[in-house]
Amino acid sequence: MNALKRHRVLTAIWGSPRGWRGTAISVNHSDIGRRFIIAAFAFFAIGGVLAMLIRAQLATPGSAFVGPEIYNQLFTMHGSIMMFLFAIPMFEGLALYLLPKMLGSRDMAFPRLSAYGWWCYLFGGTILIASLAFGVAPDSGWFMYTPLSSKIYTPGINADVWLLGITFVEISAVAAAIEITVSILKVRAPGMRLDRMPLFAWYLLITALMMIAAFPPLILGSILLEVERAFGWPFFDPDRGGSPLLWQHLFWLFGHPEVYIIFLPAAGVVSTVLPVMARTRILGYGWIVAALLALAFLSFGLWVHHMFTTGIPHMALGFFSAASALVAVPTALQIFAWLGTLWNGRPELKLPMLYLLGFFLIFVLGGLTGVMLAMVPFDWQAHDTHFVVAHLHYVLVGGFIFPMLAGAYYWLPHFTGRARVPKLGEAAFWLIFVGFNVTFFLMHLTGLLGMPRRIYTYPDGMGWTWLNLLSSVGSFVMAFGFALFAIDVALQIFLSRRSRRNPWGSSTLEWAMPIPASAYNFASQPHVEDRDPLVTDPELGLRLARGEGYLAEARHGRRETMAVDITTGTVDHVVVLPGNTGLPIMTAAVTGSFFLCLLFGFYWLALVPLAGVIALGWRWAWVLGWREDLGQVSIRPGETALTHRETTGAPGWWGSVFLLISDATLLGSLLFGYAFLWVVAPNWPPPELIGGGVLLGLLAALAAIAGTLLTRHAASASRKGSTASASRSASIAAGLQAVVIGVLVALGIMELPSPSGHAYAAICWALLVYAAVHALIALLCAAFIRARIASGHVSGTRTLEVSVAQLFGDYAGVATLIVLLCVLVPVVMS
């Protein structure tokens, strides 16, 4: 097969139809990545307009431009859009587009999951923007502190829009995190050991792992607050045993790692673009990876430094203050590695390099003010002033937007296949750089002069007037710079000349292909022998196009890509990926219907789309797989490998593992809330609310253990080819999980008081609901295995589905036992 014929065959397999139908059903990672990036930039523009309105209001004292109600919606939506609809989705889009190309793969591990995440993001973001248009936008701040966001102070649906809309968007983020993690670990080019991965992949891997652990506390907090608003369960009401500080803890357990989740992908762009601009290799590859691991670990121990003024114990103040200062060490290590790279190389002052220099100056200043705020005495003085606003923007704009703009100009030729228009980008840079510093540097001064944040006006004579006016002028200069950037990108897309391949002389694999990239990325997949494969083999792209790599021949119209051992990069198996389908958009639409029912108070009606999600999830899994063993398949002349359904450690199994890790983090956050209230709330748990239920608890525990063991037996029997025994065990396991659900519900109804009366009853009910939901998931998994065995999709070699079902069965059993222990310990102790 010659190169042109191979291109046509692979395009037919991997491509998407044109028009609206292709838009709806495409699961190609390049399509999904581009959509994320374009939508994130559109949301950024909306957030920027809101910022201009904020600065117009604060430009002069006593301004009547907008009133307090509208102003509260403006600053809440500005922060929410920038954090949840711009920063995270922008990095997700870049990751989805670039990762397979950098890793020498043809797609991500779970293409349909990427598409589902995209539609969830789009629908959730649309809900939030629509609320702004209809005047019911969230107005309690992007941090939604209770009791301000509780029903008594925010009686409309404003807070509900935030809680449900952000939860909807977070589903997309968790899906992307799992997708990125498994793709980096498993779906790489053969030979690409962990220490041969591009640094950008390391940054994204660690970021995705942080997302898996950091987002569940926010999702849990949003669920608990929405339940409190909808049904009166008093998790955050101190009059009924709750605590508003619990919301702050749950929010900042997410919120502080979120800062590094935003920063690390941008730092990955710096570590990728900087060596190319300096015409040398990155200095200290191993040290940078170690710094990333340290930064990820430390970031989870800093959340309380947002709460220094809430009255926490002095020992905790000292610990979190020291940890907040310590986190500067791994960040500084990266900065010194970048400076050393510049010193070793021969830097060229091209446009991406201009943005990187702007990043260095702004981010270092933001880091220094961060160290200042980490010191408790200073934080007590500057807390909730414009000094904090300035610090936040120096870190996030300097640490994310400037590197991303450098990355935009660096990778735009890859996206468009065209060269940029000279000089226009430089003008945009100087407008953005000067406008940003005028805007936010002066906010440090207004903050030190005592100007609080989140105020819609201020009196004259406070010494803030000229500083605020200049700050507002600077913000409009910056806005003109971003508008010029958008014009520059549009001109490059539509009017510029064609670009040559690899215009920067880069060494990473995404440039070993024609640009813009084909739907399949590589006509054949490479074998990687070096960290800089295009330096070692400049003709690699040509050889792959001729079919000299892996999987050069298309088989039976299947989308195939290689999977490798996680650490060594040796060939593991061939992954057969699903093709284009409408299931992701349908599932996202039904999921959105569920959230809309909750938003408008149709709680019983919400059960209909919930059932729809379960049915579509069943269909999602059912259409995969095959009824015969494929055995060893050729991957290149003289080499064979099994397909992913006939081996262990398939991406689907690893994806389930990371999903359950995220799920366990949510359970851990719920247990944290249970323990926190026990410690801080007076007379908790109240003796009069502690009932019985030990016998019911024992029955539920026995049923959970038996159901788990039978699910494991079904999996073991399937691997041995005993399908009849496996089918019986799966059927009984499903029945036992139904018993668990019934007993848990009976335990709550018969032994617990009304959950609206006290936080103790409410959180016990929340634990029981969590266990019941996971028992239902285990029931569905067991029933699915029973059906798959009957249909012939499961055999002694095709055991991927039973392995996944075993994981969910094990987790449901352990979660049920933990929940029962927490609920029944006070009963036993009393």
TrEMBL record:
Q: Predominant location of this chain? A: membrane
Q: Which residues form the signal peptide?
A: none
Q: Where in the cell is it found?
A: Cell membrane
Q: In which pathway does it act?
A: Energy metabolism; oxidative phosphorylation
EC number assigned by the record: 7.1.1.9
Specify whether rRNA-binding is a keyword of the entry.
Answer: no
* Membrane-protein topology: Multi-pass membrane protein
Please report a single Pfam family linked to this protein. COX1
Annotated family? Belongs to the heme-copper respiratory oxidase family.
Q: What is this protein called?
A: cytochrome-c oxidase
Q: What organism is the protein native to? A: Teichococcus globiformis
Q: Taxonomically, what lineage is the organism?
A: Bacteria, Pseudomonadati, Pseudomonadota, Alphaproteobacteria, Acetobacterales
Gene designation per UniProt: ctaD
